[in-house]
Each structure stands twice: as C-alpha cells, then as structure tokens.
Specification:
Length: 324
C-alpha cells in the first residue's frame, strides 16, 4: 500500500470516484473489443497510449527522476501479479456479463482480510470472519453449484476466473503492504503499464499470429490466442480512449490513496458494482439474474462491514480498484 502523505479526504474521495468510473469505462470498452481483437493486442495498445498519457503526470510531479526506485524487483513482481489478475478478469469478461464478472472480482477485499492472517500474522476477529464467510456465500451462489454444466452459459473455469483474479490481486496488495513499496502516484502507474507492455509484447511474439488457437476453443481462449489484426477505422477511437482512460485510472487511484487514508477512500470503490450493472444493461442489454443480484448484495454488505471493522481497528488497507 502506498504511504499516505496527506489527509485530504474530499480530494481523495473525488479521485477514487473518478478512478472507479474510469475502470467501469475500461471494462465496458474491453468487452466491446473482445469479439474481434486479441486480449494481448488490446492490452498492448492500451498500455502504450497510457504510458504517453502518464508522462504528462510524471512531468508534473518532478520529471523522470521521480521514476527512480531502489526496489525495482518489488515493482516488477507487483506489476506481473497485477497483469495476471487483469488478464484473468478480462478473459472472464469476454464470456460473462459485465456485472457478473465485476461482482465476483469484488471478493478481493474478503480475500485480503482472510489471507492477512497467515501472510501478515494479523488477528481477525469472529465478526469479520463471519462477514467474510457471508461474502463467500455470495460468491458460491453466483457460481450456481446446483446447476448442471449444460445449464450454464459458460464453463466452470470461466466462472472461476474472476475469483482467481481477485486472489492474485489480494496477494499483490498484501505483498505491497508487507514490503512497504513507496513511490509517487505517477511512478506507480508507470511501472504497472510497463509490466502490461512487456507481457503483451511477449504474448505477441509467442501467439500473435494466432497459430496456437484451436478451432474448438471457447470464447475466453479465443480472446487470449486470437491473431493480431490492424484495427478497423471505427475502432481506433476505442483504442485511443482505452489508452487515455488506462493512464487516468492508474493516476487517480494512486492519488486517492496518497491524499486520504484508506479507511475513508476504500468504501467508495463499491460504486463500481452499480456502474457495472448500468453499463451491462445500457451497452450489452444484460440484466443480472437473481443469483447475481443476491451475490452482489451479500458481497457488498460483507465487504463494507469488513471495511468498517478494519477502520475501527485502524488498519484498513487499499481496496480493489487499483487492479487496473
């Protein structure tokens, strides 16, 4: 978690709301592009354009010297973990409704609380453990374990991808908290975008020609292994908007947690859930099923309870929005 250097609650909340809104746009645009482009191609263009945007913020915060770090391996490992989390989430997003994937990913705060016991040796009381348990009931309900494979629109593996993304993100947050990495908001965002750029370039070199794609591959694997193609003219604005938006996400969320304490800022990340429902309905015509509505309610209630309890204990950590 980034060290809090100020305590400007109003400005921090404004930044986190802007960042979460930008994330909802990001997810909606990637889902739009997932039917015709490879995931690593989308990530490459988003990161490349995002880096150019972030250079403006780097210059405003002191120039290239702000990118210097004495802990390059930590930033590299953190970046790789965030990339894994993102790719798992986006693969699920290509096959799942936007609200479903987003709600399942919001298991991350619950996993952070649960994993803080073995990793950070923190004590978690029975009230918070009960809240975590209730939240996971919501996750299980959205997995629909009572349904047969033929009754599901996607495979069990796809349903688990957002949960895996939440798990890797939770490990990233705990690692950052334990190691105490410190950097400016723009530098943290730059390191993440560089990690995306390196990984997506590697995917291009290995799978960019589409040779690894099997004819019977499902939606998610097709999205992962599809060949790169030159973007259609009408899609260029989407790629450019995605890149600019990506740079904005990293900066806004890093600033939010620098300007205000996490206990104040983190609960506002849950605005991402109704935003995902809104974009899913308005753009893709998806309305959550009763299982998803119930899962959202349980995850939202349990997550906010955990935040409030951790706030009272003075150890609230960063939430889930910084994943992208």
């Amino acid at each position: 978690m980034i060290a809090t250097v100020h305590n400007k609650a109003g400005l921090g909340i404004a930044f986190v709301l802007a960042g979460v809104f930008a994330i909802s746009i990001n997810d909606m645009l990637i889902k739009q592009l997932s039917g015709g482009y490879a995931l690593h191609q989308i990530i490459f263009f988003r990161s490349l354009i995002g880096l150019l945007v972030l250079m403006i913020f780097v210059q405003a915060e002191g120039g290239l010297r702000t990118l210097h770090t004495g802990q390059p391996l930590i930033h590299l490992l953190r970046g790789v973990m965030v990339v894994i989390s993102n790719m798992a989430f986006f693969l699920a997003l290509s096959a799942l409704p936007l609200a479903d994937a987003t709600a399942l990913f919001f298991a991350a705060p619950l996993l952070i609380t649960l994993l803080s016991v073995p990793i950070l040796k923190e004590r978690v009381g029975p009230l918070r453990l009960s809240a975590v348990f209730i939240g996971f009931i919501g996750v299980v309900i959205m997995q629909r374990p009572w349904a047969s494979t033929g009754d599901l629109e996607v495979t069990r593996l796809v349903l688990l991808l957002p949960v895996f993304a939440a798990l890797t993100y939770a490990l990233t947050q705990l690692m950052t908290r334990k190691l105490g990495a410190r950097a400016s908001a723009s530098a943290l965002a730059v390191y993440i975008q560089l990690a995306f750029l390196i990984v997506s370039t590697g995917f291009f070199l290995v799978a960019g020609d589409g040779a690894l794609l099997q004819a019977d591959a499902g939606t998610s694997m097709t999205f992962l292994l599809r060949a790169w193609i030159w973007p259609a003219p009408q899609d260029w604005w989407v790629f450019v908007g995605l890149g600019c938006n990506g740079g904005l996400i990293g900066y806004c969320l890093s600033q939010a947690y620098r300007l205000a304490d996490a206990a104040t800022v983190a609960p506002f990340e849950y605005i991402g859930l109704p935003l995902a429902v809104f974009w899913g309905l308005m753009i893709f015509g998806d309305l959550p099923t009763w299982e998803v509505w119930l899962g959202i309610a349980l995850i939202l209630a349990s997550g906010l309870f955990v935040y409030l309890r951790e706030r009272s204990k003075g150890r609230v950590r960063q939430g889930v929005a910084a994943r992208r």
